[in-house]
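Trying the structure run again after the queue cleared.
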Amino acid sequence: MSGIIGEVRRMSAKATFKRRSRSPAARKKPAASISKQKKEKAQSTFLALKSLGAESGRSTSIGANGNAGEVSRRDAGAAEPKLASPDLPSVQMLAAGKALRDRVPRQIHGTWKRNKEKVDVLAILRASDKGRIKHLLPIRYGRMLQSPFTFYRGSAALMAADLANTPTTGIRVQGCGDCHLLNFGGFATPERNILLDINDFDETLPAPWEWDVKRLVASFVLAARSQGLSESDARDMAVGCARSYRKRLREYAGMSPLEVWYSRITVEDLVAAAPASTRQRFEGRLRKRMATEIEKSSAEMAYPQLAGMVSGKIRIHDAPPLIFHPGADTGGISVEEFRSRVEEGLKVYRETLSDDRRELLDQYRLVDAAIKVVGIGSVGTHCFILLMMSANNDPLFLQIKEARQSVLEPYAGKSAYLHPGQRVVVGQRLMQPATDVFMGWATGRGGRHFYVRQLRDAKIKPMVEAMDTEVMSFFAKMCGWGLARAHAKSGTQELVISGYLGSQDNFDEAMGSFAVAYADQAERDHATLKAAVRAGKIEVHIES
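Done. Tokens:
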């Protein structure tokens, strides 16, 4: 530890001498000082560097087997280690990041080659089937089969295994874990304002910051290819996304912890960031889409689509195979047993809410519940929708999603939380600027873990199929911004990461190269799935 800190301080002293040698007019404004809280937490960066071999010059790539230079797993619930603070000011934290370039050159992130001895595509996909509802698995594979992009969205576990064998600096943040472009979008805050941010945290876990960036940039290349956009434009989108991440992170590094915590990307921010030539047209389209989605997502508007009177009772409409009540005909438990389990789970969930949120929840009663298939990666997991009603029959729809081990845990270490639902809720609260008032978690009678949130709380999903090069390029920059904000809010390492990234485009260009190479890999993996389907090894259901 003393070696790296000593090196950083020598670099800082040299930089200070150079600044004092300049004329007053030529001096730059010093980097923003950091708070005592950030100084105290900065030690975790140096602890990570030491444990990863940065001090001795060993490779800092993270692997899965606990060998030298790899991250070891912590026991679930274990406290983070605490050391005396090195009390480094911001200029030295920036220098610490810069020093990492000697051990992990920024250009090295652009390389990609799969370790075929450690990664078996079909084996990893099948391993993720464990514990899922069997008769829904063909739907999952049918959705993944549609294109390399949909395959990518459903194979977060596969990329996690790949990322574990890529170089990293050893600096960790709260990671999204499944950071592709369709997991960004608009959503309503408790104050009913619309923000742009990450909106899926099923796989969230503390992990190397590079992993989120790499998954995000590769998703833009695949999305661009799915739209028939040029290869050069696809690569430029990845570079632009990484550049936005780098520049925005540097901005957050100069803010106080409270400024970062309260920061958010509003509709006004989106409009202001849009190209001047198309800003007016973009604002009109955006606000029209917002109004439509907000109206569609309200419980009052969702009610006639999802529920109605059946035999004199209010019931959620069955729309198999995507929405259905369990029963003997579906190979599940009886309707009565299902409701009993839901009621028990609601009681457990209620205890995870704060007192004021419990009071709000208590104003609604359970009316009905059904199984609902969602997404691509989540298909087959146990997910439900609950219809609640107030005394005046005002509807509230809650979504209960199964929470499983994060796909990152085999490679980044176990979660500090024994309950996967709590892992999701805490990770979302750390990364998002505002979270759903009904967020909580529960354990079912059979020992399954869940988290709870509102269904369709004014969520606005990006429409990739309607994006041209200009719109997708702009969205790439916005996602880079959103990821930088989430990483800065969830940790104290933005200064070190910023020092590493610097002001040049070395890392940005490396991400362009990685994104193209990994998109090629995803296309090969998609072809592997297609071959398995043709050979009868995997059953699929193609939805009409």
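The longest helix spans residues 506-534. Worth checking whether this holds up in the mutant runs.
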